[in-house]
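Quick one: structure for this chain?
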Amino acid sequence: MEYKKNIFFFCILFIINLVKSEYIYNALDLKKEDVCYYPLLFEQIYTLFPNKSTIIKCFNKIQQDDPWRVGNILKAFNLCFSKEEVMKSYVYRKPFILIEGNNKMITKEVSRLVAKKVGAKYSYTPPECMAGLINSYRYEHIGKTAFYALALYAASYEIKQTLFSGTAVVMNGYWTDQVSVVLLNTFKKSEMPVQGSKVYNLPPDLIAPHSFIYLHTPSSYGDFGLGRTSNLMHRMHEIYSNFNIIPKNIVTTKQNIADTFNDVYAIIQTQIGNKFNLP
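Got it. Here's what it folds into:
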């Protein structure tokens, strides 16, 4: 009799998990609904946040079981805002240039060359005010995703302050980088959300780049020890092609860094050189 009860409860548990899995799968299928999935209970490790308030809600949820760690993160975040934020109507004298790519080594080198050329500050996420807490959570914890998402708002604030001072900003690793990580992990064995989906729209409370360049390094160049396959590079190219950020440029890198830099800077000059009086 006891054996039959165990079998019965096992079957019930199996059915519940099956239904739950199907629900989660359907919720994550962004192609069907063409909306971004933001789990109300924040149970997914890889999550897209539509704005800052949603990230804070996520941390409030985590804080119930982990008040000390979350408290340190929120305290560091608040200390990032040491100055009054510039007015939204302010016309920046220098540009915010975003450069990302599927090869970190090449992207970093080109970004630094562009920053040096225009006399810009080379920036990254998380900014220095939050960098000390980068290892607060493991990669398989939702807190890790929330931390990087929140750090974007500290970085966005820092970018505005730098532009306000009359200095350009070149960044490698912004909101687009985080979205690509989430999508690559969410849709490992299925198609990516179609172009036009809301997942590709920059949150309105983050500063938008004046020039956005994605460096596509062909797999034929090798992965430079990054372990990135041809399929992964193709999927990253697809994601970045779908981002709804204008102007957006997909640049195929060359095997010579200097040649790639020249291609990138020529695009920047053509699009925003006159507007911002770039050298």
